[in-house]
Design a protein that fits this description.
The complex is a heterodimer of chains A (about 900) and B (about 80). Chain A has about 900 residues and is of the alpha+beta class. Chain A has 26 helices and 30 strands. Among the domains of chain A are: about 120 residues, no CATH class; about 170 residues, Barwin-like endoglucanases; about 120 residues, RNA polymerase Rpb1, domain 3 (Enzyme I, Chain A, domain 2, Orthogonal Bundle), CATH 1.10.274; about 160 residues, Topoisomerase I, Chain A, domain 4 (Orthogonal Bundle), CATH 1.10.132. Chain B contains 2 helices and 4 strands, in the order E-H-E-H-E-E. Classes of the chains: A alpha+beta (about 900), B alpha+beta (about 80). Chains A and B meet through strand 30 of A and strand 4 of B. Chain B: Keywords: Cytoplasm, DNA-directed RNA polymerase, Nucleotidyltransferase, Transcription, Transferase.
Chain lengths: ~900, ~80
């Protein structure tokens, strides 16, 4: 392998007027573009020497056609010099550090040496900065008194001198400035960090302006046949026009005032031509009022040339549409609308082995009427790389012509490998390879179990699809990027694909306690599974019909030799675990692939901490795990459909007794708060260590109210049992928490801003509804109502205050982490782990001597550890190990 | 400035050693690299100064590692560039 070339150094410099004229192919003097016949004016902005954009014409400079001519620069001779806005800071610095009369650095050579060090010394390399020069001093070389240089944005420089006790500003023209810069000696420039060989400072004052080739400012022809010029061309027209007028006035000997005005106008046009977003300068606008996009705007920012066109590009062979769920797909599949599958193609080389197949694709043609119809082809590429579009007219002829050496671009069909992506692509699982299933409809379909890695939901999300075009790309996609090789997240070392929402509720309902199913029931539940026969029934019912337990049904999806012991997320963390006798059925024991006890929930098959999933991956590999996810999600959806699962407003209903109790608790809490306020007002409150009296009171109030809310939750929870859908979801970990339920049925509780009660608002009170200096619970955002009972107007307002804080937090967090992510990517993007385990840059420089110091791939680790010792021991002993 | 601090005595500073030429040659051979491809440490780095590392030396740093228990890293002493 050839070693990569290294960049030795990069030199940045300025164009000198000489160089600009040398590279110019034409002096431009006319502000017009095209004549009435649509032919470019000679020496106009669209001069044929500057390159051609119209097909058919030939460039006068290089004699090539529009497609081949790279374009050539022209130039405009400016009537008077103008300042280049990009260099105003450099100009200001140079004016301030050099003498106004002899233009030498305002330092003696000894002073200079002190700063930049003796020549050729070890430490040489410092430069003289503006701060090293004392203000308004006398030139050490010629004795001239220096004046203060004022700089006014965008391009005005002036000298300030004192006359009759008043400060007088004297404006410096660009010509004056240029004269001064010209006289700065080369050696002084080197001390300032400017290399005079490539960047003489006077070149920052433009005397001649390069005219970019037409190829970088093409005009477009609108539907009505009118030409519309590029923004840059518009700006250049302005410059030439003013320049011309300036020259005429100058030659006619116009008064100084007019000359100055025109000079400023020319300066304005050149400034906005270079950068149309300069501070202190009104942006130049198009006739429609839209600000022009000039040179700097083309390069800057996210949509600029660097970030928009070079670092990121638009690609072919991609599709985008809305996504929707389909639980019947495997996690490794993606449903693709027929319309997209018909449009997108894959190049297949014709060989003698697939000749007949390819011929059939060509014969099928570009229109595939239904998802069942055989796939066709859209293009055929001849051995001489000529591309032939297939249409009904030429199908048979092309099919006849096809032979090895051709390439057929066939349409997508089932089982093709495609890359599927959802933005923002924050981690590697944001792009995964799926297998195609062509479907009716207009949306991409995906199994809801793969939502977590993409962070997708179905409220209108759109996703992108890319089709690898070569064998290498397809192999890489299948081996490295496939969904089944990305079940484990490199972030945690645990699974990230798994059951969500209804999968968890469903498997919880199915496996909770002991239930019995008849043969019909079992077959209904397992109809999607690939089973050969049912296990031995658990027992017979009174009529002698066989019955199976729910745990047996679940065991059907487990691998045969799976052994593990763990606690479900419904586990209450009792002090002494009753294990199999747990009244919540939260102790899970799986012996030889049989679920002996316990309820499967989020901890078992959930997307982020599915322990069974994790065990299967480590013991049986990714393929088996992918099958397990498919099986278990299908089973759980059948499970949830046995009874149905819904939630309505009446699920939050409590009885009179509970409402009475809740009322009592809240009243008690509010009067407790009042009592504490009274103690405080009487000065009897003991402050807590390190806190003021007010802080102590606030903390006590927060505590009392927090407890009160929890108590209402307990009261509500006592009434709402496992027959309540919200409780099932909270206990199983599918969605929501008991706190959410408390807030719906019991009491919303204290609203807070930055962890404190709401204090802001009017003078001494939050809202005009309360007395001044009222410290009571209601006056500072305690909401005694629940979402069910409805909020009072003041409560509603406090709730909005608390809610707003959350919104602001998320907005700030996303923007900050987005920027952090961008910088991380830029810093790390071309590091890779080499075959010897070192982390290296593209130049082979070592960053880490062993990846992560232990060489462990986190995506193949068990929550970071290279070996899951506990899991292995437990699966052998079939007992819990502490 | 009376007392001088030896950073090596601080518990957060890992063990730094200057490698001899033979060790360096071995190191470069194991990783198939040139001296330039090693990570760098400045000549005025407090720990490098404390063990008397000079420009061109290679320093072995033995750290406690959260993942591997013990990790070795090697750094080439270079002159600090100006600014």
């Amino acid at each position: 392998m050839t070693s990569p070339k290294r960049v030795g150094r990069i030199e940045f410099g300025l164009f000198s007027p000489k160089e600009i004229r040398k590279m110019s192919v034409r002096k431009i003097i006319w502000a017009d573009t095209y004549d009435d016949d649509g032919f470019p004016y000679p020496q106009g902005l669209m001069d044929l020497n500057l390159g051609v954009i119209d097909p058919g014409l030939r460039c006068k400079t290089c004699d090539q056609k529009a497609a081949d001519c790279p374009g050539h620069f022209g130039h405009i001779e400016l009537a008077k010099p103008v300042i280049h806005v990009g260099y105003t800071r450099l100009i200001r610095k140079l004016l301030r550090v050099t003498c106004r009369s002899c233009s030498r650095l305002l330092m003696t050579s000894e002073e200079v040496e002190k700063i930049i060090g003796p020549e050729d010394s070890e430490l040489a390399g410092e430069f003289v900065s503006e701060k090293d020069i004392k203000k308004e001093r006398v030139c050490p070389h010629c004795g001239e008194q220096q004046l203060k240089i004022n700089f006014e944005k965008p391009t005005t420089f002036s000298e300030v001198f004192v006359e009759e006790g008043r400060k007088v500003e004297h404006k410096l023209t660009p010509a004056d400035i240029r004269a001064r810069l010209e006289r700065i000696p080369d050696d002084d420039l080197r001390a300032l960090g400017v290399n005079p060989d490539v960047a003489r400072p006077e070149w920052t004052i433009l005397t001649v302006l390069p005219v970019p080739p037409v190829t970088m400012r093409p005009s477009i022809i609108l539907e009505n046949g009118q030409r519309s010029e590029d923004d840059l061309t518009h700006k250049l027209v302005d410059i030439i026009r003013i320049n011309q007028r300036f020259k005429e006035n100058q030659d006619a000997g116009a008064p100084q005032l007019i000359i100055e005005d025109l000079w400023e106008l020319l300066q304005y046009h050149v400034t906005t031509y270079l950068d149309n977003e300069v501070a202190g300068c009104p942006p130049a606008r198009h006739r429609s009022g839209r600000p022009l996009k000039t040179l700097s705007q083309r390069l800057k920012g996210k949509e600029g040339r660097f970030r928009g066109s070079l670092s990121g590009k638009r690609v072919n062979f991609s599709a985008r549409t809305v996504i929707s769920p389909d639980p019947n797909l495997s996690i490794g599949e993606v449903g693709i609308p027929l319309a997209i599958a018909n449009e997108m193609t894959l190049p297949i080389r014709v060989t003698q082995f697939n000749l007949e197949e390819m011929r059939q694709y060509v014969l099928n043609g570009p229109e595939r009427p239904t998802t069942r119809s055989p796939c066709g082809a859209n293009y055929a590429i001849r051995p001489d790389n000529r591309r032939m579009r297939l249409s009904d007219a030429n199908l048979e002829t092309v099919a006849e012509m096809i032979e090895p050496g051709w390439t057929v671009e066939r349409q997508l069909k089932d089982n093709d490998i495609v890359l599927f992506n959802r933005q923002p692509s924050l981690h590697r699982m944001s792009i995964m390879a799926h297998r195609v299933v062509v479907m009716d409809g207009k949306t991409f379909r995906l199994n809801p179990a793969v939502c977590p890695p993409y962070n997708a939901d179905f409220d209108g999300d759109e996703m992108n699809l890319h089709i690898p075009q070569t064998e290498e790309a397809r192999a890489e996609a299948e081996i490295l990027v496939s969904v089944s090789s990305n079940i484990l997240s490199p972030r945690t070392g645990g699974p990230i694909i798994g059951g969500i929402h209804d999968h968890i509720s469903g498997i919880f309902l199915l496996t909770h306690r002991i239930q019995h199913f008849t043969r019909e029931g079992v077959l209904y539940l397992t109809q999607h599974l690939d089973l050969e026969h049912l296990p031995e029934p658990d027992r017979m019912d009174e009529n002698g019909n066989p019955l199976w337990t729910n745990k047996q049904v679940f065991s059907l999806v487990l691998p045969d030799n799976l052994n593990m012991v763990f606690r479900a997320s419904s586990c209450q963390n009792c002090e002494t675990c009753k294990q199999e006798m747990c009244e919540n059925d939260a102790f899970i024991r799986i012996v030889n692939g049989e679920l002996v006890s316990g309820t499967i929930d989020k901890k078992g098959i959930g997307a982020f901490d599915g322990q069974i999933l994790h065990r299967i991956i480590r013991q049986h590999g990714m393929k088996r795990a992918a099958r397990f996810i498919d099986d278990v999600t299908k089973l759980s959806i059948r499970g949830i459909m046995l009874e149905g699962f819904s939630f309505g407003i009446d699920d939050e209903d409590l009885t009179k007794t509970e409402y009475g109790q809740i009322d009592e608790v809240l009243k008690g809490a509010i009067s407790d708060v009042e009592r504490r306020i009274k103690i405080y007002n009487e000065g009897q409150l003991e402050p807590m260590p390190g806190r003021t009296l007010e802080e102590t009171l606030e903390m006590q109030i927060m505590q009392v109210l927090g407890k009160a809310r929890d108590r209402t939750g307990e009261i509500a929870g006592r009434h709402l049992g496992m027959d309540n859908s919200a409780v099932v979801m909270a206990v199983s970990g599918a969605r929501g928490s008991m706190l959410n339920l408390t807030q719906m049925a019991g009491c919303l509780g204290q609203q807070s801003v930055r962890g404190e009660r709401i204090m802001r608002g009017y003078e001494d009170r939050t809202l005009p509804h309360f007395r001044r200096n009222d410290r009571g619970a209601e006056a500072h955002g305690f909401i005694a109502n629940s979402y069910k009972s409805g909020l009072s107007p003041t409560e509603f307002f406090f709730h909005a205050i608390g809610g707003r804080e959350g919104l602001v937090d998320t907005a700030v967090r996303t923007s900050q982490s987005g920027y952090l992510q961008r910088r991380m990517i830029n810093a790390l993007q071309d590091l890779k782990v080499a075959y010897d385990g070192t982390v290296r840059t593209t130049g082979g420089r070592i960053i880490q001597f062993r990846y992560g110091e232990d060489g462990t791939d986190p995506a193949r680790s068990s929550y970071g550890a290279p070996v899951d010792v506990k899991g292995i021991v437990e699966s052998v002993l079939k007992e819990e190990v502490k | 400035m009376g007392t001088s601090l030896d950073v090596r005595n601080h518990e957060m500073v890992p063990d730094h050693q200057i490698m001899d030429e033979e060790e360096v040659a071995d190191l470069l051979a194991t990783y198939h690299i040139t001296l330039e491809q090693l990570p760098k440490i400045y000549h005025d780095d407090p720990a490098a100064k404390a063990i008397g590392g000079e420009v061109g030396n290679v320093i072995r740093i033995i750290r406690d590692s959260r993942t591997a228990g013990r990790a070795e890293a090697y750094r080439l002493v270079v002159k600090r560039p100006k600014k």
